[in-house]
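Methods — Computational structure assignment.
A single polypeptide chain was analysed. Its primary sequence is given first, followed by the predicted tertiary structure written as structure tokens.
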Amino acid sequence: MLLGSSTLYTVPLEDYFCRVVVKKVRQADVEVSVPTSKVRLVGEAPGTFIVWPTDLLQVISKRPQVL
């Protein structure tokens, strides 16, 4: 997942959530923290921005990526 901004589709996020994009799925059957009408499981999220709790994030690269 890539760390994003503090809004998702113009909706402000609480301080303990952030916007991420799912690039690789390891466990497809895990529920996302904030489900939407299109994404309820992580396996449905590749290439999609979702809301994720900041305390569950892990930095895997300090090099910024451009989407």
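Note: The chain has a mean pLDDT of 79.
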